[in-house]
Every structure is written in C-alpha cells, then in structure tokens.
Design a protein that fits this description.
Structural class: alpha/beta
Number of domains: 2
Number of helices: 15
Largest sheet: 5 strands, mixed
C-alpha cells in the first residue's frame, strides 16, 4: 500500500461486517432505510487517478435496494493528506463517472444507471474545511440563477471526518473493537496524540486482546503507530496500559517491532554497502561478471568492507575478491 494509513483503512473496511457498520454509522437514515445492507458486497478495482494514489485510497461496495429496483453503489474515498482537498467534489465526480462507465461495460444494453452514494473518509488535524458540494466549486452567486444551476451537475458527497469525532462517538459506532481502535489510531497517530488519549481506549484494547484474532489486531495497531510515529511512541503506549496482561503483551510487541526495525536497518545498510562496492569495482575494472556479482551478493559486512579497502590499491578484480 502507498502509506500505512492506506494499509490500515484497507484492512478494516475490507471486512464486510465493519464496512456495514461504518455505513450504518455515517449514512443518512433515509438512505440506510432503503439499502439491504445484509446483501453488501465488496467490489474489486480502484478508480483513483494514478497520480493521486499517494493521497487517496478507494473502496466500492454494491448494495441491493430493498425496493427491488436493482442496486446502489457506495463509493468510499479515503483522503489521508494533512489538509483537505478543495477540489474533492470534482475528483469524486470523475471517479463516479468511471464507476458508471464500468457498470455500462459490464451491463451491455442497460438504460438506467445505479445510484452512487459518495463518501469521503478524512483525518487531518484541523478537520475538513473545503467544499462538499459540486456547486460550491463555481463562482459565488452564479449558480443561484436557475438557468445556470440547471446546466451544472449538482451533488454533495457525504463526509466522515474522524479528525473531529470524540472518543465516545468513535466507541459508539457499530464496528468491531479492532475497527474502533483503528479509527482512533487514524485520528490521533499522525499528530502525536496517541499517548494523550490512550486512557480512554485502554478498556477497548483489553477487550480487543481477548477477542478472536485479538493479538494480531493489537499488533496491527502497534505496527501502524510504529510506522507513523516511531518506536518510542509504540513503547510509551505499551507501558501505559493499566491491565498487566495487556501491558505485557503490548511491550512484547513493541520490543519485537524495535528488533525488526533494527534488523531492517542493518539489512538496508548492508544493501547500501554492496551497492557502493559494486560501483567502485565497475569504475575501476568495468562490468562485473556473474561470478563477481555472486561473490558480492553473498558477502557479509566484514567481507564487503575488505573489498572496499582493497579496491583502492588492487590491480585486478581477482585481487579484490580473494579470500
């Protein structure tokens, strides 16, 4: 995934029960009443511009209408930049058109389009401040005139701005414990607030640890906090839990992450050193044959350092790579 935020959102809302819970929590009651959410299906594919994958993740759900008049799509776009997008309504319109185009390709001869409910999931420190309707993107006052308003598409995207949701509001959502904790992490991790708000979530974490798959879910949250804020935050969070069982489990996870991070760093450093040695050898002796490439690929840190020293005075490739 492009970012740890994407990875967490994808994991949470690719679970059908949590997708249903999210829609029940944020869609208007009239829309919920019209949807047969028990028939929700998660659709494959993405409609986001390739140039925007670093800031947008999308999920598409198809839901039957209770009336029997076909289905509706609910299109969820996760916006994870540190500020909102003033042109989001325009982008949503473009993505909705792509969904309809795909629908028409898949349903040759269709003469009606399915309704699409656009929903933006957002987290940023200051909350969402930009337009949520398409008409707001045009010069002020112009579309107050019926003639102009009638020739410009009109729609509003729904907004789930978790950055302004309280702990009580997030915990009241019809979601799994893991999904609730994930929304808390999305709300607070980027802005260094996890340690300040953890107390309100300790009991939720305790229940999560005891649930089926709980240890993996807790590790996922700690991996996210580690990727976003670093090992110090993960260790600090673990030490704050009042529940001794949870605290011990969390501290074990934090220590594993610290070790894995150190190992990743060592591997990365070793790869950089290999690259330097290859470059030095090519500059002095020309392209390397397969045997030399294999020798460098298998070398440990000490051997690579010897090669780097020898290349300064050796008069042949064999002399550099000699045992």
């Amino acid at each position: 995934m492009a970012t740890p935020h994407d990875s967490l959102v994808k994991r949470v809302f690719s679970v059908r029960e949590d997708a249903i819970g999210e829609l029940r929590s944020v869609l208007p009651a009239e829309i919920i009443a019209a949807l047969d959410l028990e028939g929700l299906e998660i659709e494959e594919g993405s409609f986001v511009d390739p140039a925007l994958v670093q800031r947008h993740l999308d999920l598409l759900y198809s839901v039957p209408l209770k009336s029997g008049a076909g289905l509706a799509f609910v299109y969820v776009l996760f916006e994870h930049q540190s500020s909102d997008d003033p042109l989001m309504a325009f982008r949503m319109l473009a993505y909705m058109v792509r969904i309809w185009e795909k629908y028409l390709r898949d349903h040759e001869g269709a003469r009606e389009l399915p309704v699409i409910v656009p929903l933006v999931l957002h987290h940023a420190e200051e909350g969402w401040r930009s337009a949520t309707t398409f008409h707001e993107l045009f010069p002020a006052g112009l579309l107050s005139q019926p003639a102009w308003a009638g020739v410009v598409p009109s729609f509003r995207f729904l907004l789930d701005d978790v950055s302004v949701a309280t702990d009580d509001e997030l915990q009241a959502r019809q979601l799994s414990e893991f999904a609730r904790v994930a929304l808390w992490a999305l709300r607070d991790a980027r802005f260094g607030r996890l340690e300040r708000t953890l107390a309100a979530w300790s009991s939720v974490f305790s229940r999560l640890l005891q649930a089926p798959g709980g240890p993996t879910a807790v590790r996922t949250i700690f991996c996210y906090s580690y990727e976003v804020r670093g090992i110090a935050t993960a260790q600090s969070l673990a030490a704050q839990f009042p529940d001794p069982i949870l605290r011990e489990a969390a501290m074990t996870i934090a220590e594993q992450l610290r070790h894995e991070g150190r190992q990743d760093g060592l591997r990365e450093g070793l790869q950089r050193l290999r690259g330097v040695v290859r470059k030095q050898l090519r500059l002095k002796f020309g392209e390397l044959d397969d045997a030399a490439q294999a020798r460098i690929a298998a070398a440990d840190e000490a051997a690579l350092e010897r090669y780097a020293e020898r290349v300064l005075s050796a008069d042949s490739l064999a002399a550099v790579l000699a045992d």
